[in-house]
Amino acid sequence: MNYDGTTYSGLSKHNKTAGNIYHSDVKTYINGESIFSYNIGGYSLAEVNALRKIVRENMTIEVISSNDENLVKLDHSSSTNKHDNTKQNAKKYTNRGNTVKVSIPTFKVTLNGTTMDSEYNKYPCIVYNDITYFPMTYDYSRFLGLKANWYEHTKRDARGVLFIGVCHRDERQLKLNTITTTKKNKRHYTANLADYGLLINRLGYHDLINNKEEDYPILNFRGITYFPLTWKYAVDEFGWKYAFDNEYGLSIDCADPFKPVIDDTPIGFSMPHLPKERYVYGDDFYLVIPHSVYAPVANLVYRKRGEEERVYNITDQLYNGKYAVVYLNMEKFFTDDGAVGFKESTPVIDGNILSLKCKGYKREDDPKEPISEEILMKIDLDTGQILSEEIAE
After folding, report:
1. pLDDT tens digits for 131-141?
2. SS3 labels along 196-249
3. pTM (2 decimals)?
4. Cα separation of 238 and 141, whole Å?
């Protein structure tokens, strides 16, 4: 690394494996883009998955093992922007004991105006229990405006976790690229229930799908994860336009999904961490709330159906407010023995006013021993301005 005319190299001196997380106003930039990082004992620690997203156009990142330490190898000799590990990794976690009978659809399947071939497609749509299932390959998912990211090592599930969510607009593919075969598909096959961690538009432990209890479970066919195009997923989760009739078959338009792009990199964290955002969904809106003031940028994101996203950077307002707000969207509770704790709260929207409970303390308190308070914050969603901060009653 070259900085200010001095060259720095090597990992032995600067390799840091553990430490306390401290608040810092230092911002980290890679290739000119801001990247979330922690201050651990004087070292800035960035996430490999977040780094991969920024440098994916000109660099491959590989986690290697050396002397029992996990190191990061940056390979400048190759270039890729595809990380389709779904088949290679999820396949080995598939429960071969839970098989179901599936069929190749005889009706037409149209996605964003493009008809999907079923006869000679290596990864065709399949039908199970009268519901059409779609293959989550890299190309197919990006055509639907989705990302399917596999995390091999995670605390959420020892078998690995597959996250499916909306991708950024510049990551979508406008053309449906299919892999064809010379052998025509048969009418009937068997598929397996996916037996690994599954998260769809959610990040929490409690959000992992109990696939065995689903009426339309997520399947694995030919080593690829298939998810059902039910109303629950197609409309409720991704906000697509969805129609089916006997004449035109299944038609899905996913040009403008009404969901935020979720940063799924915390799934792969192998250390204790703070979530960066909390996601709140309503029938006609969604809201992304920054979790704490420890992030370099605290963005409040609000979108109403039929409108564009509004992104408000409320960092300066949080630092200069009447109270030192530490965590947003948290409310006080009392344990059975009378101790005070804080848990995630439910925000309230009345018109254009967001009422949000937070954890913080008065700025005149001793910073070494602050008294935690439940603070009620009100924010104007039309302007992003914090209107008031008061101790909750």
Report:
1. 999 999 888 88
2. CEEEECCCCHHHCCCHHHCCCCCEEECCEEEEECCHHHHHHHCCCEEEEECCCE
3. 0.65
4. 12
